[in-house]
Amino acid sequence: MRLEVLPVEGIGDVRPGDDLAAAITTAAPWLRAGDVLVVTSKIVSKAEGSLVDVPVDGDERAVARDEVLRAETARPVARRGQTRIVQTHHGFVMASAGIDASNVDRAHLVLLPKDPDASARALRTTLRERHGLDVAVVISDTMGRPWRNGLTDVALGAAGISAIRDHRGEVDPYGNELSITQMAVVDELAAAGELVKGKCAQVPVAVVRGYLDTPLPEADGDGAAVLVRGADQDLFSLGTAEARAEGLRAAARLPDHGRPPFPVLDELDFEKALTRALATISAESTATFAADLLPGDDSGRCRVVCRPADSGGVALVSLGADVQRLRAALAADGLGSTMETAEDGRGTHVVVTVS
Amino acid sequence: MRLEVLPVEGIGDVRPGDDLAAAITTAAPWLRAGDVLVVTSKIVSKAEGSLVDVPVDGDERAVARDEVLRAETARPVARRGQTRIVQTHHGFVMASAGIDASNVDRAHLVLLPKDPDASARALRTTLRERHGLDVAVVISDTMGRPWRNGLTDVALGAAGISAIRDHRGEVDPYGNELSITQMAVVDELAAAGELVKGKCAQVPVAVVRGYLDTPLPEADGDGAAVLVRGADQDLFSLGTAEARAEGLRAAARLPDHGRPPFPVLDELDFEKALTRALATISAESTATFAADLLPGDDSGRCRVVCRPADSGGVALVSLGADVQRLRAALAADGLGSTMETAEDGRGTHVVVTVS
């Protein structure tokens, strides 16, 4: 096998309503069946009219940009300084929701295509039906990523190619089942295309030749949407600072009779978690804590009797703060708790029931 | 410009001490000056002897794997179920620290190369000095990433090529300065190489031809290390669940006289933050809060007098819990606070000073 990655030069400026299939085939009469077209999302957006008018300067421009960002945002993810990382309505996590002010006049912003898989399918269909060309289409854009500097191109949409190459069930020469099973090949094709597009000026389309066997499957496939991982499945759905603040706010909201604010992170041994919680607060607490494991029933797994340092009002206030500290520390390991203030022969105390 | 991506077939099994440069040039006598060699890190590790002995089965194997993971981990990042995402001593954030049990016999695990940039430089030097071949070398591995399903290959090491293609200062045809300035081209080259390596069985090296101009710069350059973003610079340095737990634990540790536990997320208007904190706790609190902004001096920006619902012991305990709630809510917006319990004609109360 051997791949070629070729630039499509001479496409020129794209305007709303332009026929991309015609523009591409005119610029690249050398296209062949089986080629993968890697098309920069910006020209798809421009052809589809995914543009918004904005003032060219001043505060009005900033206000308008903020409004557009708000409209394109399904969920804020992280921020620092001027940077806003959000999840778009498509599910992509991108800086500024992929809104772009480059390669367009200053009176417009370019949005992402509304449905990049649909755009890929439409372009593929037009190329086949009007130009007799059986190709696959990948619609690409540039994204940042956690943990690594620099940006790479990835696929927003795809048609005529599987987004994933699946190695599940394959066995290596040593008899081990392959641990790396699903490769995001459309992202790698987008990256390969960028190498060629990025080095030439004004080349919005690259062709990867030799990757697919002909004839291509007639079906367009599931598109690049399968690469979108939902926030509920993602271990990094929120910026670290935002998630820490959520934890602090959850501690602030912890009701007297409360469920743990977040799902359990990991099944931690109960007694270990309890010991850890008591250790966490030991430096700050003046109250004393006596923990009794309970027989297994619905009332909880453990009762912690918390007594003040002395019988004065100051010590009772401290007791309240310490109980709240204990319950936040338990919640950090996914343990819910309730608190009851009670009196006995030894005075006012709090019973924390941990479940 | 036009790229070719070619597989190097027939390298066969690599063993500790093997001469990779000789193996590659024997398998690919067609290599040329200016080619970029994309070399799977696993064969580099094997040649360098970055292997550890492990039991082939049973609990001992699991224990040994855990030990190896611990040794390779600089910092845990996130976990769920059996998955452990960690930052390695190199700075890479990878599942299982990149430790691999595939394409090796069951008595060994393959670690990442100790210094992949050094490995790339050494291979490049040997190819030039012993084989007269002036190429660039990228050492690649497969990584997952947040937000997107599927894996892609990226660069762990590089020599003879800049990891980043920098567009800073460039201007588009509309006169806009380019917003996307730094492309991680060695990651894109690794991805392009994987398209060829992944489709063929047992092809650990691919060649990207046509990307670099000859003659190559003599210097090896900064390597792929420049792509590693430190945890302090990363908005996603920790899993969301872990960061939330950190926030809860920070609330549990909040001392009576405390600095905010984390750096300020965003410069929020002080009065807005105070209003938000009071609103956050309003549903759970029985105490009453009276906030007074202070004249600007070192003593703080605001004093909140917190009074219990009544003069009983139960209300004093609740007051303590409520004050702790308030201070956690303030900390969520980066505001530090101290608490003092005091008495006056109206009884025991707490003064929270916010700074």
From TrEMBL, chains A, B:
One of its GO terms (molecular function) is GTP binding. Keywords: GTP-binding, Ligase, Magnesium, Manganese, Metal-binding, Nucleotide-binding, Potassium. Transmembrane segments: none annotated. It comes from the Bacteria. InterPro entries: F420-0_g-glutamyl_ligase, F420-0_gamma-glut_ligase-dom. Residues 12-210 form the Coenzyme F420:L-glutamate ligase-like domain. It holds the Pfam family F420_ligase. This is Coenzyme F420-0:L-glutamate ligase / coenzyme F420-1:gamma-L-glutamate ligase. It comes from Asanoa hainanensis.
